[in-house]
Amino acid sequence: MSLLLRKPAPxxxxxxxxSSTGFRSMTLHEFRGRYVILLFxxxxxxxxxxxxxxxxxxxxxxxxxxxxxxxxxxxxxxxxHCVWIMQPRKQGGLGDMDIPLLADKSMKxxxxxxxxxxxxxxxHRGMFIxxxxxxxRHISVNDIGVGRSVEESLRLVQxxxxxDEFGEVCPANxxxxxxxxxxxxxSKAEYFKGAG
Length: 196
Description:
Oligomer: single chain
Structural class: alpha+beta
EC number: 1.11.1.24
CATH superfamily of the largest domain: Glutaredoxin
CATH class of the largest domain: Alpha Beta
Strand content: 15-25%
Number of strands: 9
Keywords: Antioxidant, Disulfide bond, Oxidoreductase, Peroxidase, Redox-active center
Domain Thioredoxin: 3-162
Order of helices and strands: EEEHHEHEHEEEEHH
Protein name: thioredoxin-dependent peroxiredoxin
Shape: globular
Family: Belongs to the peroxiredoxin family. AhpC/Prx1 subfamily.
Number of helices: 6
Helix content: 25-40%
Distance between the termini: 24 Å
């Protein structure tokens, strides 16, 4: 797996499924100018995945209010995504979703991000934060049995945005409004500022 941190995020062109638009073509490039959280998850109709996707979807507007879009991706087809969304939450489905699910049946998207488990053909539970100019700023991968934190994901987006805007660095557990640090070394400041 090639580490994509601080490198351009691989673009993609595929079919996305949402509750409001149904099937539509989607590329990463169309989100240029906004932050993106790209969530890879192993499979539709599984156990941990719906809890994550529903939690992120339920707070999608909060992410949009800070200039960030959330996109989810698995190696399932757009048809499987559609059936899963149409199935009510009480019956094990996703129900209404406010984030798109990308179809990656060819596995090319998962492979380009280093998230493909070659032995199963499923994506790892990975998360990428991509900045306004398309640079990967954060990568995390959970083992299959543990879901991600929506709250921590939002905090990370806000921290990267803060460093981009002000060139300062954010300490552990930083939240908007908390103290940050100014770097005294220009090269370190540029490193921490990032490319976006």
